[in-house]
Structures are given as C-alpha cells and as structure tokens.
Amino acid sequence: EYEEKTGRAHRPLSPKQNVRKNLDFEPLSTTALILEDRPANLPAKPAEEAQKHRQQYEEMVVQAKKRELKEAQKRKKQLEERCKLEDSIGNAVVTWNNEILPNWETMCCSRKVRELWWQGIPPSVRGKVWSLAIGNELNITHELYDICLARAKEKWRSRSTVGAEGECEDAGFSAADREASLELIKLDISRTFPNLCIFQQGGPYHDTLHSILGAYTCYRPDVGYVQGMSFIAAVLILNLDTADAFIAFSNLLNKPCQMAFFRVDHGLMLTYFAAFEVFFEENLPKLFAHFKKNNLTPDIYLIDWIFTLYSKSLPLDLACRVWDVFCRDGEEFLFRTALGILKLFEDILTKMDFIHIAQFLTKLPEDLPSEEFFTSIAAIQMQSRNKKWAQV
Amino acid sequence: KIYLKLFSLLFLGVGKSCLLLQFTDKRFQPVHDLTIGVEFGARMITIDGKQIKLQIWDTAGQESFRSITRSYYRGAAGALLVYDITRRDTFNHLTTWLEDARQHSNSNMVIMLIGNKSDLESRREVKKEEGEAFAREHGLIFMETSAKTASNVEEAFINTAKEIYEKIQEGVFDINNEANGIKIGPQHAATNATLAGNQGGQQAGGGCC
C-alpha cells in the first residue's frame, strides 16, 4: 500500500522529477492532483501521458474496490458469527428463563441443564442462577441486611467522632483487630479490580461494596473482614442487587471450604491442600514430581486462588465461568480448576524453577485462551483410586 | 553463587509490596495489588565479587493471615520488618511482630528494620531516632526508605544481604541446611544467569531480572 501511495504521488511528476526534487512536494490526497492538469507555470502534460495516468488511476481504483469488497465480506462473516453467538446466548437466556428457572428444583440437576450450565450462564440470568444455586441456608432477609448495614454505619460514625488517635491503637492480636477491619475495608476497596474503575472512591459501586463488607463484619463479627472478601463481594455486586448480593455473599462464605479459609483455620487448610495433592499426583504425575523437587507447595498458589475464587488471578469473564460451575459442583470444582490451570501450562511449568513457577502462578497470563482452558479443566479426573473428592 | 531467601513482614499499607517492586523492577506503583497469601520477587546482586541471588517472599499483611505467614518464616535467612513513619500505630506494633518472627524462625535470621515513606517528612509521626533506638535495643539493622523516590531501597536489601553474607563468612550459618534459607550453588552457574540454576532442588534459580 505504501508503494502504491508513493507511486501515486510521484508518477505524475516523473518527467520533471530532477527539477522538482528539492521542492519537497508531497501531496497528501492525490486523487485531485492526478486528474487535474499541471499548474499553469509548468508545461502541460502530453496527451498520451495524461491517458496513461488516467488508466493507472483507474486500475488502482478497481484494486481498491476489490479490497473493500473482500473486507466487507470478512466483516459480514464476523458479524454473522457474532450474531450466531448472540443467538445462542439469546436462546440460552430463553431456556434459562422459561424452562429452567421456573422449575428450578426439578430441573437443576438434569443432564441437559448441567450441560448448558457448563457452557457458561448468560450474564443476564447469571445472578439469578448463582443465587438459587448458592441458596439461602442462613435465611437472611433483606431486613436483616438493612439492620447489619445500619449497625456498620453507626460504627463508622462513632469511629470518626472518637478521633483518629485511637484508630488501631489496640489492634494487636486481639479481637479488637476485627474492629479495625472496618478501617481495612476502606483501604482494600480501592485495590479491588482497580482496572475496572467502578469500585474506587467516586465510582458507582464504591458505596455498595463498602456497605456489603461492612454489613458482613456486623453480621459475622467472629469472622470479620478478611482480605480476599472484597473480590468475592465485587463479583457478586456485578451480577446481583445489593441485598441479594449480601445474601449470596454470606451464604457463600458459610460453605465449609470458604469458612475454613476465611477463618484461616490453618489445620483445615492443610487438609484441603493435602487432598488437592492427591489429585494433583493422580492427574499430572510428572509436574507433581517437578513441583516436589522444587519444594513448591500448593499453598503458594492455592491461597490466592481459593480466597478470591479466581477473580483476582483469572480474567473476569473466565472467572465468572469458573464461578458458574463452582455453583453447580461445589468446592471440588475450585480444586479441579487449579489442576486445569496446571495442566494447561504443564509444558512451560516443567521447564521452570521454583521462583519462576511461583511468580508465574501468582500472576497468570492475561490472555488465557478460554476454550482450551475449559477443555483442560474437563480433562481433569476428580477420582483417585475410586475415591471422590469428598472422601479424600 | 549464593541463594538467599528473604522475607518482608508487617503491616498493611506500609508499602511492603512497593518496596519490593522498587527493588526488583525499579518502579513505583502507588496503588499496589492486594497481596493474598504470598507473592515473589527475585534479583541478583553482587557482594564481595560473589553473585548473590535474592529470593524475596512478600507476605500478606493482614493479621488474619499470620498463621500462614508464620509457616514461611522458617527457611528464611533474613527478614525486612517494615513500618510506616507517618503512622505511629505501625511502629507501636513492632515488638509483637518481632517476637513472633523470632519465635518461628531460625535464631540467626538477620532482621532489617525499615521505616518506609521517608519522602513524607511533613506527615512524619515517628522520629528517625526512635527507629534507631528500637533497632539498637533489639539488635536489628535500621534504615529509613522511600519506595516512592527509591531512596535507600537498594541499600536496605543489599545491606541485609551483606549482613547475612558476613554471618556466612563467620560460619554462623549452617550452609548445608537449606532450612536456613541459604544455598550455595556451583561456581560456574553464576556466569550464566539465564540458564535456570536448578541444581539439587534448591529454592532459587536463574536470573529473571
């Protein structure tokens, strides 16, 4: 294209090129120039030269049109593909809304639904499906959320009036530290999905995130705010209304695996890691041996992945798909996903040493291919010597 | 070639991760990602003509994670105890953290006390003399740094490594025990840092920096 452009610019000048060389004459749009006669102060173009130029120009126009047509076809094809994808999402939305959601209890475990579920839940029904799948064992009502929130707001107020000097004074290793978590929440909100720019001070969801985390510390003072929670709450906020997000949040954290981690029950966490290693060895024996040789223990990467349910380490759309299936299959899927990641990058990881593996796994590549990723997860068998996850 | 494992400890919002980023990547990022669990940094330095590979474990700062952090103390040759000179509360907590670190690490671990954010002189709450006195009293090395302006960051890490190196020279550390966070690699490995130095399953390897 460049050649053509320069050619177009220079061709009309060719006979007199030597004379005009130092004039720095560089026309930007050449169309008019080609078709026009030379300026009056120059000798006129001979007829046959003019004819030749016209011909060349027309040829170029034909070429350009051809190219445009080709591009238009390509665009059309892309559009068709996108429409097809949107159609399938649209169809899925209809199926979810009309067939599955009204008959949740009977249908949620059917094979067809489970398959559709694996494909990823359409964003418009995602929140509803998550809510139903997570359930509300704790029987939290919207009113309870309001009460907890009011209590949290009271605390914030008294905190700011008591004065800053006592802020974290006795945070030590006591229960008072849990109180200090109200302060910590503020700091962490700004560090939750900073790239999205919606949870930060002044962003549309800043107050919502603050409210949910604050209300939770009042609802469960024994757990309090633990880092990682802000990511979970943020993902829920993106898919649900505030009070429903709070209900899903509290119930989600109440699941055994999440409770073990967020209460930082080290013994129980080690049990989970040990179970994970059983399946790791079963599925990826070579990589497992390599990790062992390098003293790379699962806590190094699993802590971040489990605490944030992959929302910090995976691209958000992929993380949501992991959440989809996590809601379907439970905690087992979190560990299956971990093995899926390790399998996907097995070849690279086996060539790395401790520090590089650790750095790689704590900062996964941003352009993770979604289809390969899920194929890789699907290939992971969660059965070890006829034992399932829960039994191990 | 010597491999050293270092630690960064302490509070939230004092800029641990920023210090590390400044040391390994020579850049400052005001809003740093949340550290959940542990993150890693690595850099090669030269002391006394010897190549030393520093492997730095950047641990989560929240109290709740202490039981996890504790399990990482072991196997570290040095630790950086960081407080924020503009926040007295972070200084007041040093004793508890120090006790905890001493209790769960090997007794020879070198600890560097760092007062970070020295660029914010106008908001200073902890005097430099106080930091020095605390360090003297507890046998720590002390420095004030600024992750933002990079002032003393290089020195803080390198001085810690020097102190460990001297202890190795004095024979204080049992360098055959990897649990001390030290690993001596074969001489020739140092000449080619891009070749992953992966001999005998040590915890650090080729130069990524």
Keywords summarizing the entry:
A: mainly alpha; two-stranded antiparallel ribbon; 2 strands; 67% helix; disordered N terminus; B: 209 residues; alpha/beta; Rossmann fold; 7-stranded mixed sheet; 30% helix
Structure description:
The complex is a heterodimer of chains A (392) and B (209). With 392 residues, chain A is an all-alpha fold. Among the domains of chain A are: 50-77; 139-159 and 174-254, Helicase, Ruva Protein, domain 3; 255-391, Orthogonal Bundle (Cyclin A, domain 1). Helices cover 67% and strands 1% of the residues of chain A. Chain A has 21 helices and two strands. Chain A has a two-stranded antiparallel sheet with strand order 1-2. In chain A, helix 7 (123-134) packs parallel to helix 17 and helix 9 (176-189) runs antiparallel to helix 10 (206-219). In chain B, strands 1, 2, 3, 4, 5, 6 and 7 form a seven-stranded mixed β-sheet that branches. The two termini of chain B are 16 Å apart. Chains A and B meet through helix 9, helix 16 and helix 20 of A and strand 2 and helix 2 of B. Chain A: Residues 47-89 form a coiled coil. Chain A: Keywords: Coiled coil.
* SSE run of chain A: HHHHHHHHHHHHHHHHHHHHHEE
Elements of chain B, N to C (H/E): EHEEHEHHEHEHE
Shape of chain A: extended
Q: Name the largest protein-protein interface in this structure.
A: A-B, 42 and 36 residues
* Helix content class of chain B: 25-40%
| C-alpha geometry of chain B | globular
State the helical fraction of chain A: 55-70%
Q: Report how far the terminal alpha carbons of chain A are from each other.
A: 64 Å
Q: What percentage of amino acids of chain B are in beta strands?
A: 15-25%
CATH topology of chain B: Rossmann fold
Strand content of chain A: under 5%
CATH top level label of chain B: Alpha Beta
Count of extended strands of chain B? 7
Summarize the main sheet of chain A.
Answer: 2 strands, antiparallel
Secondary structure tally, helices of chain A:
21
Chain-averaged pLDDT of chain B: 78
Question: What's the rounded overall pLDDT mean of chain A?
Answer: 85
CATH superfamily of chain B: P-loop containing nucleotide triphosphate hydrolases
